[in-house]
Design a protein that fits this description.
- The strands form two sheets. Strands 4-5-1-6 form a four-stranded antiparallel β-sheet, sandwiched between helices.
- It has two domains: about 140 residues, no CATH class; about 100 residues.
- It has ten helices and six strands, in the order αββαβαββααβααααα.
- Helix content is about 55%, strand content about 10%.
Length: about 300
Amino acid sequence: MNTNHMTQMELNFAPKAASISSSSMLVELGIGVWTGRKQDKRAGEDVTTANNADKGVARVTKSLLGACDELDALVKFSANVRNWHYNSTLPWSDTGPRLLPTPKYFTYHQHMTALQAEFFRMVEAFLAQYDLEVAAAQAKLGALFDVREYPNMDELRSKFTFRFNYIPLPDAGDWRLDIANDAFASLKEQYETHYTNQLTGAMKDIWQRLFDILTTLSRQLADKTEEGKSPRIFASVFDRMLEVLDLMETCNLTGDMNMQLLQRKLSAAFRGVNAEAVKDDAYLRRNTKKAVDEAIKALPSLGW
């Protein structure tokens, strides 16, 4: 992050562990997809031998089904689901669970349930084509084909998973261990520090997302690039801006007044504004860029 303007004011966090635990939860997402890719050691050895290279310097990874539209669609769909999950939640733990504020639960659960149903529909569509794809792969791969590398239908089905679980967010004093009082006090203090750090990181993540989208918008709304060309304006950037504004409203778990104020200002500036509108209206484009640049200057320091 560019820190030139980010040192003008300090980020003020005063997280309350108990209040956050009652207004948020953790959510885990697990998606498993058989990619149909396999490393071929024998082919790799053939490549190194043919090129007089040292053993192990070349690896050959083959696509067991070649081009398979159904499998390719599943892999892409899974990546999009993970991106949506990431954009709809906040970081919390290095091990996977992410923070989901209670106000976002219904929308998140409804949308994720629909994505889960679509995922398994696509899995069934792929499985219906699998035997035909394996038969066609023999011709595609030639000598690289090895029937032992193809799982049977039951094995293959088990490789596709899609689950999401909600976990209560514990209070700082929520210890279910029979330990001595001095150890309890030490653990409680450590957890409170961890809790505060994780919450601070979650709020910083919102500011970082806001900074990233605002700087992108500022570039796209400029009259000319450094090369003298008119920048392209993408509708997806405006969509992401609205997503970040929603996060600022629903995920402001610390009640940060700076975030509340900036969210209101930007929501007003982007009301009814989209990519097509700023392309067709130079005045609107300049005003929107002005609001964006002012918001960038008003961003607090994240200490980076």
